[in-house]
Structure formats: C-alpha cells, structure tokens
Write a structure and sequence with these properties.
The structure is a single chain. The chain has one domain (2-177): Alpha-Beta Barrel (fumarase), CATH 3.20.130. 25% of the residues lie in helices and 28% in strands. The chain has helices spanning 11-15, 34-45, 88-93, 107-116, 128-132, 172-177, and strands at residues 2-6, 22-31, 58-60, 98-101, 119-122, 135-142, 151-165. Strands 2-3-4-5-7 form a five-stranded mixed barrel. The model has no long low-confidence stretch (mean pLDDT 94).
Length: 178
C-alpha cells in the first residue's frame, strides 16, 4: 500500500504502517551515523542531554557527500543499519519512532521496536543522488567536528522509503527468504 506521512511520527501513525508499505515521508528527519550514535549513546549513559529530541522523530542513517554548487545536499543514500544496532534500543526507549537505512536489524532492535512502537524503513541503496532531490533543506545541528557524520536536520518532501520491519515485528527480509 502507498502512504504519505508527515512527521512527527506519532504512535498512531506507526500503528498504521505495515511491512511492505511504500511510504513518502515529508517534514523533519534527522541524520546520524556510527560516530554520532556512539556520542549520543555515551551521553545518555552519563545522564546528559543529547542534541536532538528523539520523541516521535526519525533518524536517517546518512552521511551525505558534499553538496555541489546550487544543491542543498550531496548524494544522500542510506548506510548499513546494523552498525547502529548496539545503540538503537536506548534511543527507542527514549522516544525514537523511526529509522531509515538499509540491511537487516538485530533481534534486540526488532524486540525494542515492538516494545516501543517503532518502525524501520529502507531507502534504496545506490540511489543517493535521486534521494537527495527530496531534501529541501539541510542544516548541521550537532557534532560538526564529525564532518559528513555530523547530525543534520533535514526537511524532506516525499522521500520514498519502504516499511521493512513494522511495530508488530513483521519483517520483509525474512518473508523474502521464505
């Protein structure tokens, strides 16, 4: 089924999404990769504030290439999600509702998604130049010393993603194997 969703990603919106749904996301999405996840995780472990409010938000596992002249952002393809699995359950427990990446997730992450009513979207790997056209605004908001892995606030319009794992633990990757 094709759906158009505007962020924030509320509990109600998450419950309406099912594995296999084609979704066009519009609104605010944050980016974070390995190094940013590690920093946020360690800060949370110490009881410190992190630079983004996770509540009802989506993190896109993205480290864009530099923007060319006249562009908002460079190539914006997803990175492998499993590299964030160690950190993800804590972020989900603190309100994160959606993740965008590529590849499988651990059993721990899937259980945490179920417990915390969250969803995992896949973006098409190798289509970063095309996906960047859906990003209307990009701003580094934290960890700028990480370069491409800094946390960015994106404003997206009709960013195409697929629900790969829904809040009920339905998993397109497992279904495809069967």
């Amino acid at each position: 089924m094709e759906k158009h969703i505007t962020t924030p990603l509320t509990d109600e919106k998450v419950r309406e999404l099912h594995a296999g749904d084609y979704v066009y996301l519009s609104g605010t999405v944050y980016t974070a990769r390995d190094a940013a996840h590690k920093r946020m995780y360690e800060a949370m472990q110490r009881g410190e504030e992190i630079p983004i409010d996770l509540n009802n938000n989506i993190i896109y596992y993205l480290g864009p290439s530099p923007a060319r002249e006249g562009q908002v952002i460079g190539s914006a393809g997803p990175t492998t999600s499993s590299r964030m699995d160690k950190y993800t359950p804590l972020l989900l427990e603190n309100g994160l509702k959606g993740m965008i990446g590529k590849g499988k997730r651990s059993k721990e992450v899937i259980e945490s998604m179920h417990t915390n009513n969250a969803v995992y979207f896949a973006a098409i790997g190798g289509a970063g130049a095309l996906l960047s056209k859906c990003i209307k605004k990009a701003e580094v908001i934290a960890y700028d010393d990480l370069g491409t892995e800094a946390i960015r606030k994106l404003e997206v319009e009709n960013l195409p993603v697929i629900v790969v794992i829904d809040h009920e633990k339905n998993n397109m990757y497992e279904e495809a194997i069967k």
